[in-house]
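Appendix C reproduces, verbatim, an entry submitted by the partner laboratory led by Prof. M.T., so that reviewers can inspect both the input and the predicted structure.
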Amino acid sequence: MRHKKHLMWLIPIIIVSLLAYSNIYKNEFVGDDLDFIVGWEETRSFANVGKFFEGNVPANHWGVYRPLRSIFYTISYGLFGLDPIGYHVQSIIVNLVCVLLVYLIIFQITQKHWIAGPSALFFSVQPLHVEAITHMTPSFDTIGIAFMLLSFYAYLRDGKMWKYLSWASAAIAFFTDELTIVLPLMMILHDMLFARKKYPKIVKQIIPYFIFAFTYLFIRFVLLATPSRAGYLEGSFYLTMLAMVKVFFRYIQLLFVPFGLNHNHTISEGIFAFQKESLPKAILSQSIFDLNIIIPLLIMGVLFILAFCARKKHPLITFGAGIFLVGLAPVSQIIPLAQLMSERYVFVSSIGTCAILGYCIFLLMKKRKYQPFGIALLLVVTLFFGAMTYQRNAVWKDPVALWSDTVEKSPGSQEAYNNLGVSYMEKKDLADAFLYYNKALELNPDSPKTLNNVGIAYALSGNFTEAIKYYIKAITLAPNYTRGYYNLAVAYKQIGRDDLAKAALAKAKDTGTRYSEGSNDSASAQILR
């Protein structure tokens, strides 16, 4: 009977999830896919596994350590090559595994189908997950999260085999995706709220997981000395945390009302999710006394105090709020990241908000007179989330669709205009490429990357003299800009100045920056050949 009740929920959940993502199979490689899947030669052979554990990643992505994820890239390339459909099918399967585990975890905690079912259903169509599932590169993060959830579920079960499975899954998770490093905290949160265990017993059970976590951190930060991918905003931890107050509040809003989804959110005027293009004046003007910081702090403070006060009568609400906070800990900028905010960052945290929504459905269904409202709310939220997810998938169809959506929602983003120009250039539409490069330069006329890209566009049009002018501007602003020197060498070669071409190539080698042909330079690479 219990299995039938599980299937009564799981079968509709799987169908709804498959429908929500049914339009992704024609989507192309976008963004980081070009670096991690299309252009990363090391993933073509298992002979490079040792390099992955030494910290090898594509150029321009230094600052991450995910050796097992790199192995998963290699396996996937062996299975699918460069066929996007294979990667999409894989991401859908991994997502369904995560959905199943969310259902099993919540059922194991509550023993209520009417909590586990709605929670997993909402999780399966949460629109903020699109960036983690439809975008192929981040979908490999969800493999690590699947192992984290498997470890958590096994932890909730009794028996030695479950314990060993939990340990092994945790170790795999930590070395696949750093977001999973919060697993021990999730276990402590559960034990304090539901198991009612005494603190010494909790610590004893959690020790193996902390050992795995500290092993990962020791290898990453001590043995390999893997640097952070960015610094604090204007070098200030305080100013960065003020920005993160606004980010956390935005996450809460989006998880319940997912309007305005964006690849590069405008956090506040002049401060963007891609922190490198945030304006110093906007960063420095922040104050803890600003209304756009005080109001979010007060609202979040009240919400989390209420959630804490509910711990005895409604522990699942406290658990959900705790999971939200714990899940965001690795991306809270305590250790600085290149992005202040990303929708894929909330994949783990959304388990908490979906559990709270699922529990609300359960409370309505407990009383007969409220059951129609419970069913109506279940259907409305599912249809709303599912429709938003389906619609958002189309934004990731190709680079032009993605960056067109981004510039529409963040018109102050220089990076978005630059990338839209690149997208048109890759399609050989030089007129639109120049249009958006010029808009990018209006926002930041001293961007070496955009100046370099304008040079490539001129080179593609056959105007190498003009291309050289832009390459020189780029390397003047960024003397260690390897790509600029490389492209300058190509242009000099095309006009017959082999002496200057050799000098530019020598300078490129002297910069000491590892160079990898990315999508921006594919045109120049073709000219060189």
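The radius of gyration is 24 Å. Additional entries are available on request from the coordinating office.
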